[in-house]
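Weekly modeling sync, notes
Attendees: S.R. (lead), two postdocs, one rotation student

Agenda item 3: backlog of single-chain predictions. S.R. asked that every request posted to the team notebook include the full sequence so nobody has to chase files. The rotation student volunteered to paste the first one in as an example of the format we agreed on. Action items at the bottom.

Example entry:
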Amino acid sequence: MAQFNDISTFEDIKLLVNTFYSKVQKDEFIGPIFNEKIGNRWPEHLEKMYRFWQTILLEVHSYSGSPFPPHKQLPVAKEHFDRWMQIFTETTDNLFSGPLADEAKLRAKNMAEMFNYKIDYFRNLEKSQTDNS
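Predicted structure, as returned to the notebook:
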């Protein structure tokens, strides 16, 4: 079995993000959603993701912003987050091993669950407001 190093550098972050999103773009289930939303802005999205994960995993505070709002109106459900998480976990496990790799998977899982919960919440809120008007 191959021995993998842990995530420890900005180059590791870039490898994880680039590998993960190249799989996402090609995925039949979630790829079309990402490709439609991001369009030709993939380089900017990847740069933002590098900074996001660098801040979370390497404690280099290069990301600022609120990650949820751009996702609020996406046409996604739990199955989409499950697929996203499956690809993220497989990508991480195929590239890295160690405490920061485990932290990346945990943070991704928590984020997917929170985003899914918040998207459902706002959808239900909008639906109830529409139903009551």
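Discussion: group reviewed the output briefly. The first helix runs from residue 10 to 26.
Action items: rotation student to repeat for the remaining queue; S.R. to check formatting next week.
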